[in-house]
Design brief:
Layout (H helix, E strand, L loop, with lengths): L1 E2 L6 H7 L11 E8 L9 E10 L2 E8 L6 H12 L4 E4 L2 H15 L10 E4 H5 L13 H7 L10 H14 L2 H22 L6 H4 L3 E7 L3 E20 L2 E15 L4 E5 L6 E4 L4 E4 H4 L8 E2 L6 E5 L8 H18 L2
Parallel strand pairs: 2-5, 5-6
Antiparallel strand pairs: 1-4, 2-3, 3-4, 7-8, 8-9, 10-14, 11-12, 11-13
């Protein structure tokens, strides 16, 4: 069936895929599976749903077995279906969906269709921005709540197991509707959650510094993102305050006598020099007296960056500063 609303347009999905390493021949398939349990060896697959792009529209397709014996038929149909696609998109698929499917394929002595298919696991991709967005957890439903998606109509995954067992016994159409409806809600939710990939631009350096204001105490940087953020956010840590809405992000940085701390992620490669309140590479400090240095930590792995002079007028210097500091801010926020 065609997906006429509630899913991002293909061009949006294609552009956001840049952070996944996909190329111009991007041909994605979103999928979600339903099983009778978590164990790959003692449970079985009963439903797979996909959303894919064809004929200038998103289409949804579902394969459901009406008995345990139809698992092999579902796997055969799905494996054949995957052939033209360049990547799969799922939520926590690297940890559960794909390994489960591979195990069930092996149980039926079937070939693995995922060998040449790259994976985009939205759970793994978006985990680095959990604290930045103040997410209470990383379940798909929690991500949807953050996006303002209303409460779901159908049962949750755990309840579906019991409904499916009841459906096998009595073939009640109402149960069938609930099972397919739950899977459809998961699939549509994947499209909404995918739009959160826009937040990753802050980690990947995909932004332009459009304005800079420097006062005696603060440095304020305005950034332009290539894609709009689905939900506005704000957060702070130590000397930094960051907000974002639409394509605009603003960062307020506390300065000290015209200087700001520039942090580095790879703190294990540095020593902190207390006497100078800065870091130096261990390749250099190994020649120093041990009393003058100590291993750098995540919180003191910084040098001092001059916020005057060329920094105020050169976007390249501003970008270099941000590429070091922004990832540290995002991954240090709790």
């Amino acid at each position: 069936m065609p997906i006429l609303q509630g899913f991002p347009d293909f061009e949006c999905v294609r552009k956001l895929s840049i952070s996944t390493g996909q190329t111009s021949d991007f041909n994605p398939v979103f999928y979600d599976i339903e099983t009778t349990g978590l164990s790959r060896n003692s449970t079985f697959l009963y439903l797979i749903g996909v959303i894919y792009y064809t004929g200038e529209t998103w289409q949804m397709c579902q394969w459901m077995g009406e008995s345990p014996q139809q698992e092999e038929e579902i796997l055969t149909a799905f494996s054949s279906f995957l052939k033209p696609f360049t990547c799969s998109i799922q939520y926590n698929g690297d940890q559960f969906d794909q390994p489960y499917l591979e195990a069930r394929l092996a149980a039926h002595q079937m070939e693995n269709p995922f060998t040449e298919l790259s994976s985009v696991d939205l759970y793994k991709k978006l985990k680095p921005v959990k604290a930045l967005l103040k997410l209470p957890g990383m379940k798909q439903e929690q991500m949807e709540n953050f996006l303002g998606i209303s409460a779901r109509q159908y049962c949750n995954g755990g309840e579906c197991i019991h409904l499916y067992k009841d459906y096998i016994k009595n073939q009640d159409p109402a149960l069938l509707s609930s099972l397919l409806g739950h899977n459809q809600e998961d699939l549509l939710g994947l499209g909404s959650v995918y739009e959160m990939m826009a937040y990753l631009c802050l980690l990947d350096g995909r932004y332009t510094c459009t304005d800079l204001t420097c006062t005696s105490d603060n440095l304020i940087l305005s950034l332009e993102l290539p894609y709009p953020l689905p939900v506005a956010f704000s957060n702070k840590i130590q000397d930094f305050y960051i907000t974002g809405e639409g394509k605009k992000v603003r960062i307020l940085i506390n300065t000290y006598q015209g200087k700001a701390r520039q942090y580095y992620m790879n703190y294990k490669e540095y020593d902190y020099i207390p006497g100078e309140d800065t870091i130096m590479p261990k390749s250099l400090t190994r020649f120093m007296d041990k009393s003058l240095r100590k291993p750098a930590t995540k919180n003191n792995c910084y040098t001092w960056f001059d916020c005057t002079g060329a920094f105020l007028t050169d976007p390249a210097i501003q970008k270099k500063y941000l590429e070091h500091t922004l990832p540290w801010i995002i991954q240090t926020i709790h």
